[in-house]
Amino acid sequence: MARAYPVCALLLGGVLMLAMVAAHARSPMVPVEEMIPVELATVGLDSASGVPVVLLREPRVGDVVLIHIGANEALAILLGLQGVPVPRPMTHDLLVDLIDALGGRLERVMVDALEDSTYLGVLEVRLEDRDEPVYIDSRPSDALALAVRTGVPILVAPPVLASTRGQEYREIPGSDAPVTALGITVGGITDDLREALGLPPEPGVLISRTTGEAAERGLLPGAVILEVNGEVPESPMHFLELVGETPGERRARLRVWQEGEVLDLELSTEVPAMPIPRPRTGTRV
User: Which of 77, 142, 155, 161 could bridge 35 with an S-S bond, Cβ 3.0-4.6 Å?
Assistant: First the structure.
């Protein structure tokens, strides 16, 4: 059974939270209405430098754009994407819990500027006693790690997207990182998984989670995506690339094996509105 936090600790947390808001509040560099929604796809490596990058799918053009992040933040984002439970709250889990405990709500996160080769980020937080949202300065990597834990929208300023477009990336060696696009998170299929889950022999990628329109249309974890726009996705990254090649304004065409049946459906390439469930920590003692 969870143990209640001492009142003094909660009050101290509230004081620290208010001090943080006062010290780090700033307005977004670009008007919020001008920013572009993106979907956090996965984490990879910069092909030139080997530095971790987070991959964001921008649906208007179909591009994947990159933002350089640190190794610890890359791990935090991957843990959030994979929904890995941890026995005790990690730093980003703790911050989400603190905002919740103080009556706040994270509304969305933004990457709003690139200054002197440094990306700038903002958290938009709604507090119970304020009519207007509070904007808090943040490193984009921390903001994105919070976003994958809460499912809040991710917005990026057009100049940031333009500055990162066209850069090349590669997969993290030895990782089997999940990839998300169209509100569908997919992973590779091993022989053991194929046998254990009774999957078909055809190549494809395995669905582990769905949100938005994909969930509304009935796609379930354990289904296999056999084709995207008529082509077979050979890996999770290839799935992302095929989605990105969907012609502008058209819906992505999927062929899916699910529970012994083959389904054909089309999904919007826009960023899904429904949140990604936040991974749960283990029992608190």
Answer: 155
